[in-house]
Amino acid sequence: MTVPSSWFGPSSYTLALKLVSFGLPQIEAISFACAQKYGTLQYFTMHREEREKVNWAVTYLEICQKLRIDVAHKKVLVVGVNDGMDIELFNHCQIIGIDPCHQALALARANFPHHEFQIALAESLPLADASVDAYIALRVINCSTVNIKSLIEELQRTLKPNGSFIFSIANGFFDKKIYKVGVFKDGKVNLEYANSLKNELLNLLEGVGTQLTVVEHPIETFIFGCKN
C-alpha cells in the first residue's frame, strides 16, 4: 500500500487514524503504521543493541527469580512479541506470540518455528477465556496505538485465575549509543510520560491482580503481579 508522505505524523497512532479514516480496517491500519517503526531492520538492530549494553536479559531473569516468578512449561502469551527477542528467555514454555506487525512476526516465526504466532491486537486477543497461564507485555504500553484500558480487559479475560503477568515500560532510549532519559510522546521527548504511563497501568492493574511489585531498572520499569 502507498500513502502520501504527509500522512506520516509524529506517531504510529497518528498514521493509523489517518488510514482508518481512509477506509482501511483497524487491524490493517495499525499493522501498517507499526511496521513503519517496529518492522524495520534499524529498529530490530537498535533494540538488541540497547539491551546488550545494559545486560538486560540477565537483569530480567534475576528479577523473575527474586520474585519467584516461574513460567516454565506453561502456556505463555507474549503481547507485542516483535521479532521474538523477548521469548528467547522463555523458549522452554509453550509460547503464543501476537503482534500487529507482519515483518516482525515473519522474523519471529523464522527464529522460533516451534512456537505459535498470530497477527492480532492487544485489545482484541484471538484467545478463549482463561486460556493462558502467564501474560507478558514488555514495552507494549509505550506504543502510541495501544488502548491501555482495553488491553487490561483482555488480560483479565484471557489469563487463568492465579496466573502471572509481567509488564514493562521504557524509561529512556539510546541516541547514537548514548542513553537518554525520557520517552517519545507526540514526536517529542517527554520526561514525565513514562511515569504517567506507569501510574495509569498500576491503577488499572489494582482491579485485576494482587501482589503487585514494581521494579525500577535504568532503561525500563517492570510491573509483576498475580491475577485474583
Automatic annotation (TrEMBL):
Keywords (A to Z) from UniProt: Methyltransferase, Transferase
Keyword check for Transferase, yes or no: yes
- GO MF annotation terms: S-adenosylmethionine-dependent methyltransferase activity
GO biological-process terms attached to the record: methylation
According to UniProt, the name of this protein is Class I SAM-dependent methyltransferase
Tree of life domain: Bacteria
Record's InterPro entries?
Methyltransf_11, SAM-dependent_MTases_sf, Thiol_S-MT
> Domain Methyltransferase type: where?
79-167
| Organism in which the protein naturally occurs | Aerosakkonema funiforme FACHB-1375
* Record flagged with keyword Methyltransferase: yes
